[in-house]
Specification:
This protein has about 325 residues and is an alpha+beta fold. The protein has two domains: about 200 residues, Apoptosis, Tumor Necrosis Factor Receptor Associated Protein 2, Chain A (Sandwich), CATH 2.60.210.10; about 80 residues, 2-Layer Sandwich (Herpes Virus-1), CATH 3.30.40.10. A hairpin with a 2-residue loop joins strand 14 and strand 15.
Length: about 325
């Protein structure tokens, strides 16, 4: 869809836009946390050391256990079965098929040898979450760490911009700056909005994002999406809100969207989805305000040859009333 044909006019509730704090770019690999071990030789040729908490032994370790558990091909941590060649070089089971049964280190043919000693050493390890420098305080057994890291609340967020396959990751302050500076996304302060979407030829509907706007209120950031896509054979328009944070925090907020014209209107009210859920996942679940094209053209008025939609809405925070035990809305003034 040609974005040049899109016009967006936005008004907030009159507050000055807050200064958006930038943070260090987190789009890089989190440094490994290395534990030092003294060196001892295993029968399979792999140098493994165990310190046993006794402090320095005076022997310089050949390498750390963490490095030994890193696959030389994909550089990911290895989990059973860990394979090795006749010379003792190791690699993960996934990469064993990728290297056509040849050791990536010495090029010798790989057999079906398991490095049981390294697997046993891994069982005894306890390592911090790889997102420890982002605030995660947890320490896990080696074989539990990977499962935790996939759902760790401190893991970086993916860029929520849906107009391109952006691979940038980072914390929320960094991504807000990234959206503003790199994607030129409109930033607004306030919890009410009034957008007008204009398309000169509404019959040319493609699977593309029309608009993304970021709102700052209640000390949080929200992404307002407005899109056109095919729902089955019928083109539709959809607006929905995503919360820039985790799902548990997103449940503390609610929002409403309204579109109408010619004496009719559609209203949607719901809870914003977390940006942990991809833009496509939210869209495909239809969790938002969906407007059929015929209804959108009816709202636009005129000769039905141009799309002119005005979408208004607001965001509020649900506050728990400790006396009554019920939630009451905290409206933004």
């Amino acid at each position: 869809m040609d974005l040049d044909n899109i016009e967006c006019v936005s008004t907030s509730d009159g507050l000055d836009e807050d200064e958006i704090q930038t943070s260090q770019n987190l789009n890089h690999q989190v440094p490994h946390h290395h534990h030092q071990f003294s060196s001892s030789k295993l029968h399979n040729g792999v140098n493994i050391g165990v310190n046993n908490g006794m402090g320095p032994t005076g022997i310089t370790p050949a390498t750390s256990v963490h490095e030994l558990l890193e696959c030389p091909v994909c550089t990911n941590s290895m989990y059973p079965p860990i394979h090795q060649c006749h010379n003792g070089h190791t690699l993960c089971s996934t990469c064993k098929t990728r290297v056509h049964n040849r050791c990536p280190t010495c090029r010798q043919e790989l057999g079906d040898i398991r490095c049981l000693a390294l697997e046993k050493v891994a069982e005894s390890l306890e390592l911090p979450c790889k997102f420890f420098n982002l605030g995660c305080p947890e320490i896990f057994p080696y074989y539990s760490k990977l499962k935790h890291e996939a759902i760790c609340n401190f893991r970086p967020y993916n860029c929520p911009y849906a107009g391109s396959e952006c691979s940038v990751v980072g914390d929320i302050p960094f991504l807000v700056s990234h959206l503003r500076d790199d994607h030129k996304v409109d930033m607004h302060t306030g919890c009410t909005f009034n957008h007008r979407y204009v398309k000169s030829n509404p019959r040319e509907v493609e699977n593309a994002t029309w608009m993304l706007t970021v709102f700052h209120c209640f000390g949080q950031y929200f992404c307002l999406h407005f899109e056109a896509f095919q729902l089955g054979m019928a083109p539709v328009y959809m607006a929905f809100l995503r919360f820039m944070g985790d799902e548990a925090d997103a449940r503390n907020y609610s929002y409403s969207l309204e579109v109408g014209g010619n004496g009719r209107k559609l209203i949607w009210e719901g809870t914003p989805r977390s940006v942990r859920d991809s833009h496509r996942k939210v869209r495909d679940s239809h969790d938002g305000l969906i407007i059929q094209r015929n209804m959108a053209l009816f709202f636009s008025g005129g000769d039905r040859k141009e799309l002119k939609l005005r979408v208004t809405g607001r965001i509020w925070k649900e506050q728990q009333n400790p006396e009554a035990g019920v939630c009451i809305p905290n409206l933004c003034s």
